[in-house]
Amino acid sequence: MTLEIKSYKSGIRFAAAIQPRASQNQILGIHNHALKIKLTSPPVDGAANQACIKFLAKAFGVSPARLSIVKGETSRNKTIQLEGMDPKVFMNTLTPLIAEAG
Length: 102
Fold this sequence. Notes:
alpha+beta; Conserved Hypothetical Protein Mth637, Chain: A; six-stranded mixed sheet; 2 helices; 6 strands; globular
């Protein structure tokens, strides 16, 4: 299964499926064309959204300011925008992260 990555003005957008209240922060893989992510934060007062941004920033080695949730702030299914990254670099960085989870 492949992750749908859309090039967008100054970066990329991709779908993410968030599972809150997990035992650890982890990228599980690709599920229904979305990046499946487990987060320890509960989905209260935007805590999981903030945790998601921080976790992905660390995973991809970018500043959290380059990441934003552009759709689905109150949903488990989100669209995330990453500034200054092209799809090829994104996938090259993501592939070993998924392998670690598996």
